[in-house]
Each structure stands twice: as C-alpha cells, then as structure tokens.
Amino acid sequence: MHCRKRWPLALLLMIGITACSSLPTRPAPAIEIDLPRFMGTWYVIAHVPYWLEEGKLTARDVYRLREDGRIDNDYVFKRRWDGPEHRWQGVSTVQPGSGGAHWQVQFVWPFKSDLHVLEVSADYQWALLSNPRRDLAWVFHRQAEVDEAELQDWLTRLSAYGVDPTELRRVEQVPSS
To answer: What's the subunit arrangement here (predicted)?
Structure first.
C-alpha cells in the first residue's frame, strides 16, 4: 500500500522535472568534482523550484556513493513544522567524461533528469546546481543556516551561469522566531 501512494507522486515529480521548455540547454561546466567529498547531507538554502518542491520546509539532499559508482540520492523534507519528515529516494548516475559535474537523476523509472554541479567551494561547504536549461537551480550548504551576504554572493554567481536570480526562493530550514 505504501508503494502505491508514492508511485503517483514520484511520477508527477519526474514529469515536472522533465517538462518541456523553450530555453536552450547549456553544457555542464568544466570542473572536477571530488565525489567522495561531495557525498553527505546538503541543506537546500534556496532554489528555483519545480512545482513539487514548492512550500517544502527543512529540505535537504543526502548523497551516498555506491559501490557501482552510482549515487543514492534522498530528498528529505517536511510539509509543515509540526509534521512528519518525508523522504523521496532516487539514484543518480555521473555522466562519463563530465568530471563529476553532470548527473542523471532518476526517482521513478523510466524518467531521468539532468543535473549540473555548476560550482562547489574548495572546502565542499557550499555548492551551486542547475538543470541544463538553467530554469531550475539550487543553492546547497552543509549547514542549515547561512547569512544573507553569502546568499547574495551565490545569487550573483548563479546569474553568471545563466540562472535568473530573481526566481530563487529561500527554503525555510528553521522556524521563524
């Protein structure tokens, strides 16, 4: 029964991610990602969300490198502060020759979507990601809270990659006081 409830939602998730767009695609940046260092928990600080991400709280991605070279990709979130935590489980495949910067993400077979790691800090504390059309984007950080000056710097950086910074929305990680 539990799997039956998740299937329609996961299908809608993938349709939303792979929906057609008139924006041109752009190649993954020519950077090298140290995949073992990239693994772990990343808090979604801000994003240009697709419709299934709208309104999610405490959103984070958890990555685990598998023995076969693929990546277990869990998206964890709440819908309300006093509600339960939800987890969508997917698998990502790093595309050969991309230096670890181009992933294909799959939450529901047979649907896949492309993800580019645009930039990651030298200490692997923050990362900027987008889809190839640059109409979806994510700001990741190892900590749930960051200051506004850092966020503004990341918005400027994303703009240089072709992401519209006015479309980015902050993700609430802790309740407002």
So the answer is: Homodimer.
